[in-house]
Amino acid sequence: MAAENSKQFWKRNAKLPGSIQPVYGAQHPPLDPRLTKNFIKERSKVNAVPLKNKKASSFHEFARNTSDAWDIGDDEEEDFSPPSFQTLNSKVALATAAQVLENHSKLRVKPERSQSTTSDIPANYVIKSSSDAQLSRNSSDSCLRNALHKQQSLPIRPIIPLVARISDQNASGAPPMTVREKTRLEKFRQLLSSHNTDLDELRKCSWPGVPREVRPVTWRLLSGYLPANTERRKLTLQRKREEYFGFIEQYYDSRNEEHHQDTYRQIHIDIPRTNPLIPLFQQPLVQEIFERILFIWAIRHPASGYVQGINDLVTPFFVVFLSEHVEEDVENFDVTNLSQDVLRSIEADSFWCMSKLLDGIQDNYTFAQPGIQKKVKALEELVSRIDEQVHNHFRRYEVEYLQFAFRWMNNLLMRELPLRCTIRLWDTYQSEPEGFSHFHLYVCAAFLIKWRKEILDEEDFQGLLMLLQNLPTIHWGNEEIGLLLAEAYRLKYMFADAPNHYRR
Whole-model pTM? Predict the structure, then answer.
């Protein structure tokens, strides 16, 4: 019984990071902070639990508490509507109703002003994010406009299409290709078509982003999967794809064996939760491909095996290699329209490129995940030098870096950013020496400091943790990622070769 209680501990503690709760990253719809923020703080005060009791006494305890896996048997029996959520929803409903009545009375008292105000708002207007709401507060008619925003945005939830949008352009739409972009694309094509591609020059050109048209072959080259010599590429691809499907024939049937049951079962649980808002990844055929890729990788790397989070790392490669055969946006594409040979090549290439990536960060996934522990500690030291005020703010409210940065390191920020942003980010990671390990640290530091104002505005443990797990990146695109990478490069230039400034 004690073991069962321990196993289910995270389910009963909705405030713990990673437990079942309405806390999501950029791949999931976030909570509306305008309605829930005050009530969450109020509920945290009512259910008074000493903050020190929340702090994990060890890494293993924290890892157990933040695991988002559950038993298959529990899925059918567990009620995912705990009383605390029902209370929260009823309070939000009452508050919303009261606000609507208040706004209605204002409309009746001042009909002329309300008419002129609403006429300024397009019929199809929907609020995009909490930052839009903040901007609207500064206008002369902010009270009424905010009320209209709430009524329009909450039922419609317009963010879902933007989450699912995989296009690597900004959310405002894809502009026509400029002369500069055409020149860059032509340079890429010249590099890729030369007899021996200059990989150093290719990395230099790829750092600010790779054009969509040449991204698949560029990623294969930068990951070390494809040789620089053009004459060897076709034979290499053929050999490696045959080798992968040889692994399938040799090992995949062993998923039914007892000693592989836990691995296969965990993969089977995680895959449906990979990018759940993108229809592409909910197709049975795509999920079968992911199962094979992850299972073969796990049994060929017994030192780590499969660890939650690795499933996310397949998706950028799969989308990029799929886009080579699909002209339209891929998020709604039906993969059954592709030939078997094309699907096999996408699957094999995704496996090998993911394997190359994981070769450089495998200590993130071995026992006790020492790579992640070191990176989180390095992030803490770096932030203490970059912005001591933010660092001391965390210490004051007893927020441990491991409680939010574990996911940043384990998933390479994929849970914090839309998939289109991850693809753009990986253009640079594959161009940087040790991009997924060393440079990622500086990207995380820049990402954290970007939200310093919002962090310093929060003045309790619960508010800080909710903020750090719901950072508003849902509308990010190339421009925001470019600025983030520029700041990360600046930090790397300042601190990477300056150990006396880096350490305490």
Answer: 0.71
